Amino acid sequence: MSSGPETRPTLPPTSPLHWERAHRIIATVYPPVHLFEDLATDPADWDLLASLEAKTNPRVRDQLGDLSLVPPARRVFGPTASIAVAPFCHVSPARPGRFHDGSFGAWYGGDRFEVALAETVHHAEAFFRRTAEPAAETQRRELVCGLRGVFHDLRGGGFEACLDPEDYAPAQALARRLRAENADGIVYPSVRWPEGLAAAAFWPDLLRLPVIQARHLLYRWNGSAVTHYLVYGEADWVALPGRA
User: Fold this and answer.
1) Which residues contact 8 (CB under 8 A, 6 or more apart)?
2) Chain CA centroid to CA 142, Å
3) How far apart are CA 42 and CA 91, in angstroms?
4) Which residues of the chain have pLDDT under 50?
5) Which of 129, 151, 131 is nearest to 224 (CA)?
6) 116 φ, ψ (degrees, to nearest 5)
7) 3-state DSSP of the chain
8) Residue 201: strand pairing partners
9) How far apart are CA 4 and CA 46, in angstroms?
10) Beta strands 136-153; 14-26: pairing state
């Protein structure tokens, strides 16, 4: 018999987050969706406009993704909005992450380039090993923008299970609960670069446009590890610690 009302587990405390430069690295940029870029219109009208566009261009729906995952009040429009909105609309259970399970998306970024680099190298290696890829080079693009909001903060301890290097289940459970309560996102010590911070934003209106396409990168996979990266326009490959 219960001795009293059930209490839900304590949530992480919140902290204001204001990063002038949040760094994100992606494999590709989704095709521009000029519906977001060119029309200074009420985001509540997007679903109707998308439907009209798709009637004349079947590729538009694939480019837009699932707009229903972003409520109108949390949408953005204008220059580079398609880049900002993409990770929230293009989701799949086959592509989960630490703080999203594929039923919804998240925008991941680091407070410095090294965080974004280390996190994405880890995931690139995991993919290449899973698919038994031969030695190859693969392109990446760095995106930079401002990030502001009130984020649930894992820096104070008590949520170590959410920072497990391999098991994402506790982190995803926390993310599902917070997002359902309309939380902005989660800030946490980077698992792959502990000297820095990472953030998972749950909504595109936390990003400060424009999203700048910065460094163009090449990762070198030797068949067992990503050992080096090259910044286009620079002469030398850079060895990754512990891999070269």
Assistant:
1) none
2) 12
3) 24
4) 1-2, 4-7, 29-33, 39-40, 52-56, 58-62
5) 129
6) -60, -40
7) CCCCCCCCCCCCCEEEEEEEEEEEEECCCCCCCHHHHHCCCCHHHHHHHHHHHHHHCCHHHHHHCCHHHCCHHHCCCCCCHHHHHHHHHCCCCCCCECCECCCCCCEEEECCHHHHHHHHHHHHHHHHHHCCCCCEEEEEEEEEEEEEEEEEECCCCCCHHHHCCCCCHHHHHHHHHHHHCCCCEEEEECCCCCCCEEEEECCHHHEEEEEEEEEEEEEEECCCCEEEEEECCCCCCEECCCCC
8) 107, 185
9) 47
10) antiparallel
pLDDT in tens, 26-76: 986 444 445 555 544 555 555 555 554 444 454 444 455 788 899 989 998
What single-letter amino acid sits at 201?
A
- Cα distance between residue 127 and residue 199, in whole Å: 22
Q: Which two tokens stand for residue 81?
A: 């909005």
CA distances from 159 to 11, 48, 95, 129, 210 (A): 9, 42, 23, 29, 33
What's the whole-model pTM score? 0.84
CA dihedral 41, 46, 51, 52 (to 10 degrees): 0
The bridge status of strand 238-239 relative to strand 226-231 is antiparallel
Which pair of structure tokens corresponds to residue 234? 């620079």
As a whole number of angstroms, the distance between CA 209 and CA 62 comes to 23
